[in-house]
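Hi support team,

I'm opening this ticket because the web form for multi-chain structure prediction keeps timing out on my end. I have pasted the exact lines I submitted so you can reproduce it. The total is 712 residues across two entries, so I didn't expect it to be a heavy job. Is there a limit I'm missing, or should I split the entries? Thanks in advance, R.K.
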Amino acid sequence: MTAASAAAGPEVASRRVSLELIGLSRRFGSVVALDGLTFSVPPGEVFGFLGPNGAGKTTAMRAIFGVVALEGGQVRWQGQPVTEQARRRFGYMPEERGLYPSMQILEQLEYLGRLHDMTAASARDAARHWIKRLGLAGRESAKLEALSHGNQQRVQLAAALMHDPELLVLDEPFAGLDPGGVDDMTEILAERARAGVTVLFSSHQLDLVEHICEAVAIIHRGRVVTQGAVSDLERGDRPRLAVRVTGDQAGDWAARLDPGVATVEQVNSGMVVLTLAPGADSQKVLDAARAAGAVEHFSFASRRLSEVFRDVTGEEA
Amino acid sequence: MNSKWVRLTAIIAEREIRQRARSRAFAVSTIVLLLVVAAGVVIPAILAHTAKPQRVGIVGGQAAAMTGIVHEAGHLTGTGVTVVPQPSLTAAEAALRSGQLDVVLVNDSEVVVKQVSVADSSGSGGGLASAIADVAGLSRLLGQLPPGAADRGVTLPVRGLSPPSASLSRRLTGLFTVVLVWVLISAYGSQIAMGVGEEKQNRIVEVILASVRPVQLLVGKVTGIGVLALAQAALMVVAFLGLGAAVGSSLVHGAAPGIVICGAVFLVLGYAFYCTAYAAAGSLVSRQSDVGTVILPVQVPLIVAYALSYTVIYANGANIFYKVLGFFPPTAPLAMPVLYAAGDVPAWQAAISAVLLAAGTVWMARTAATIYGRSILRTGSRVRLRQVLARGEAA
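Hello R.K., no limit was hit. The queue was backed up. Here is the completed structure from your submission:
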């Protein structure tokens, strides 16, 4: 646990929480998939569940749906252990997409809707709605296997959305999508979140999704290593500055700085990236820069989520 | 188990029925099976009318009068006859045994055949033999009545050289049953296993099992496919009986109500026994293409019983091994209808076998549901049966 996550912790706890994963543990043979995984997700925002491949994201998501047995821990929904009845109010898009290839898409969506307690009529209406919304109008009676890969992904998303779920869980929803697909997916996730739905999605591409989610939990080897609002994580506990002094390509001015004020992370053709020492005043850095020459650029620089991951684990995401 | 449980399971069964009933494979298999049934009923009936002349031996009495009786009986039954006078009853019986004669008429006393059938008189040469007995008895009545003739009745007794057996037509009805049970269980069983393998390969199980339990998916699937299998079976039976009656096939005479009921009971129980086993086998693989290898062990008892059934149908009487198979649940669905149709076991024994099979079905369903539930969500290499059953872990 870093100071960043500790700082974000109380804030998370004070927010309204709908989904809680508490101390989940599971091993497959000698591989530890979940090692006391704990985090919670509030309703009404898009929550990212991030980490490298093999970190345990898929196992955790499958645990929410009871399709993987846990050795320990509990998944709670609105303060109660998840029941079968509650699960039928959840929407799930698994990592390995799964639908019947030779079934017509309208029928297929209707079938899945009915398995989530919808009547045949309302399932048919919802299927038509999502087929139209996802740009598949006119393909209602096409078999799934006749659709392009991207369109099959859309049907899979529609299957998760059919019954207007209270919790939407999507495992790697952006994998394999073209840029248009990413935009559509982002828009739908944001729209669902605005409608009060709890939206949890996973991704191993931390930097690609950092602008999509409002809050994240970052997982490594089955444990949450840091979590909180994306804006907090990007700022971090030790603010970072990017400074350029005209004519100083090597950033020599910064090398003379007192380590008690700031340390140099990197110099990139005159742009010096520094990390402020705890409690140090950023204006002292500005003073030093101005003393060295004309200051061309001075800003707080945000950290990427992959850097956050690297900082807390010492490994590349 | 509540109404919601049943409703969700019914939705799953409904999907299976809809998807499969619409498929080309179902239409084609129905047509092919109907053609096979039609051919099986109509062709023997056509052949029966062009049967080769029966050789009838006559012993004692007046050759001309007895030849007249035989020809009259041949005329009545539409059978060609050749009369062969025999020097003695011993010689005639020897000729019967060696197959040189089909029927022997002994003057004024009896008709002898190689074997009489148990249930009816239409079996091997029985039609002609009983007609000869009738005509000979009638002519005796019209002639001088020997003392005591009235006590013995009008018809001469028909005697068989070997012990009575079930008629060929009864045994052919048994054959029809065994083929139907075999085709339906193995064809629909494979469909179940393939369907489970498909769901596992496509990973749709994960989506479905997020809202229903594995046992619901299992029960829904085997029920839906079972409804189709039984509908197809009912169609075959109706075609068999309808066509048989229309062409006057002797096969239908063999379909006594008892045999039909026995066949139906063992078809339903046999499907129930095997359907979950096929589903459990299908759940062990991750790729549909591996289904063929895992269902083989499930099919072995069926194959053994099916192959041995032919020896019982065409030979006379079942051996003890086959009788044991008739009471062993995995082979009973095929063996018992044959044993019953061939007259080798009484009805109460068939009932005991059905009870044993029902008990076996309960055991199989429980075991299969456990295997299915534990392996349906496991991906990667093929799941080992021992591994699944050893660990008491619910996936």
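A quick check on our side: Chain B has two domains: 3-44+169-390, 51-165. Let us know if the file doesn't open in your viewer.
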